[in-house]
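does this look right to u?? zinc ion version
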Amino acid sequence: MKFIPRQPREGINVSDTHPLVEAGTLVAGLTVIFVAIALLLIFLVEIALYFIPVEKEVALFEDWLPEDLVTVSPADERLHQTQLLVDRLAFHWADAPYTFRVEIDDSSVANAMALPGGLIVVTEGLLDLVESENELAFVLGHELGHFRNRDHLRALGRGIVLSLFFATTMGKDVSNISVNVTDLALRGFSRQQESSADEFGLALVYTHYGHVDQAWRLFERWDETDGTVLNVVSYTSTHPDAGDRVDKLKDQALREGWPVEGSITGLKW
Amino acid sequence: MLELFLNFGLPFLLLLVAYFVGTMLEKGHFRSIRKREGEYAKFPVVTFDTMPDDWSASSGTLVSGSVVISLDYFKRVIAGLRAIVGGRIKTYEPLLDRARREAMLRMIEDARRDGYDAIFNVRLETSRLANSRGDGKGTAGVEMLAFGTAVKFASRFARTQ
Ligand SMILES: [Zn+2]
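got this back:
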């Protein structure tokens, strides 16, 4: 037998795909799949929340608080007064299915949020800006309007799915799914949802005080100062332009014949 | 922020280092393999399990060459991603190619050092080495073993060409 010397041939057993191309393809492909799954999950959660009955929602979220919420002391007078004001306003919403809970978030950025299970979060930043109870009443009434229209369950899917994702990748306990108030603060509702909540809020304010004086004074101040000197970026980024809102509220008061002047209730803190 | 860096930034940095160092080492290894394969090209290595009829041996012995090569972190991560969807694990292919060829070369070097002229009945064996992770998953590296029967020819001219 004649032995024919031959060196191993290259490129037979080893693919000529560059490792970085292989890495890029895999990372890009898997990212697309992953994002698609996440979007589908978000969509499914949104659908589920859309159809959840209000009793079920209340039962599920009865004691729930956003994970990163930094609450003030339970003895804080502002907390008592705000809770009291919410209760008084909600009294005029005869068949309200919620027992509303108020929490004050230790954040200097003005914001107010309607969260699942009848939780209303207002920030210290907002409380620093309101100058009368009437101003605060309208902001709270507006949030109650979101509950009435069940807007507060919209856009929760992203927060829930994102926290699920971080819980799994960071190796945290998945059963303890948390939604962060910082995520929720960024969700915006549609113009239609906002005006509807405004209308409901103003009606509550009128029913409670018998007039709507100073209901929109807060927004007028924001509009005058352009919102820039105040810490209202968060609230204004998720709510319509203050000037537009004031015009609409004035129209509503005029249409309904609600007095725009009356006695103002001061803040009790 | 620190948590984010520890969870994503650090592995990514490690991945980059692993890629550059790993590629450099692999290229170097392939260079050495090709050079030695050129030197030993004329040394007969066959897989027949009996000696070819026209070989007349005066003595013979078992020779072997084995090599253990570890995966780098880059290869391991990419292979892990590949494992999700399936398909050819392209980053492992050069690793095993290196292992096979290096084992053969070491076997030939083993035979040549003792003055043998040829090897027949060559076999390759591979085994997965220790786990790279505590949970019993992951591969730390591969072992490749080449062995065969080396023979000395009875006379210089016994090997018919
Ligand atoms: Zn709103």
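Residues 23 and 135 of chain B are 28 Å apart (CA to CA). idk if thats expected tbh
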